[in-house]
Amino acid sequence: MIKKVDHIGIAVKNLDAAKEFYEKILGLKVVEEEVVEDQKVKVAFIPTGDSEVELLESTTPDGPIARYIEKNGEGIQHIAFRVDNLEEKLAQLKAAGVRLIDEKPRRGAGGAQIAFLHPKATCGTLVELCERE
Ligand SMILES: C[C@@H](C(=O)O)C(=O)SCCNC(=O)CCNC(=O)[C@H](O)C(C)(C)COP(=O)(O)OP(=O)(O)OC[C@H]1O[C@@H](n2cnc3c(N)ncnc32)[C@H](O)[C@@H]1OP(=O)(O)O
Ligand SMILES: [Co+2]
Q1: What percent of the chain is helix, strand and coil (3-state, nearest 5)?
Q2: Is the ipTM of this structure higher than 0.95?
Q3: Which residue numbers delimit the VOC domain (predicted)?
Q4: Contacts 24+ apart (CB under 8 A), 96-105
């Protein structure tokens, strides 16, 4: 079952510059920063009520965030929905013929289990599903 929007992923060129805007100008607060090697990103999480903003800077010129920015510039790269059972949700989507990027959960930020659905199967938005304690 999908519980809520967990976070909105925003691709940025420079995490420090983005933090400057979100913290100093908007008045929000980064609570956690982490490198997720598996996704070739450095992330900063900013709580906004019941959901968070995830700022993403690429750690390599060939990662998904670098490729996204090269093609589209900075901006919203994905939306993440919290699920209570990721394996079960992936099996259900696979049975429904949905194109999955990840058939098995991978490790995400903050110890979450994550998996992506292909934007061509979701009416144009890259969707992440995540399960966390
Ligand atoms: C840390 C973690 C966490 O929260 O815990 C994260 O979020 S990590 C967040 C970063 N990690 C990821 O994004 C991992 C999953 N992403 C991927 O595997 C990749 O980025 C893909 C989504 C498959 C795109 O791959 P690639 O750039 O090689 O393909 P491509 O440029 O040929 O794109 C194929 C088609 O999908 C579209 N497309 C590509 N990226 C898109 C996006 N973010 N949103 C909407 N559409 C997108 C392209 O425009 C293109 O459409 P046309 O054919 O019409 O031109
Ligand atoms: Co994410």
Answers
A1: 30, 40, 30
A2: yes
A3: 4-132
A4: 105/131
Length of the chain as a residue count:
133
Ligand 1 binding pocket (C-beta < 6 A) is: 9, 36, 39, 41, 43, 54, 56, 64-65, 67-68, 71, 77-78, 80, 101, 108-109, 112, 114, 116, 119-120, 124-126, 128
d(CA 28, CA 17): 14
Strand order of the β-sheet with 113-117 is 32-36, 41-48, 51-58, 2-11, 75-83, 127-131, 113-117, 106-107
> Could you report the per-residue pLDDT of 109-127, keeping only the tens digit for each?
999 999 999 999 999 999 9
Q: Tokens in use for 43? A: 């992330």
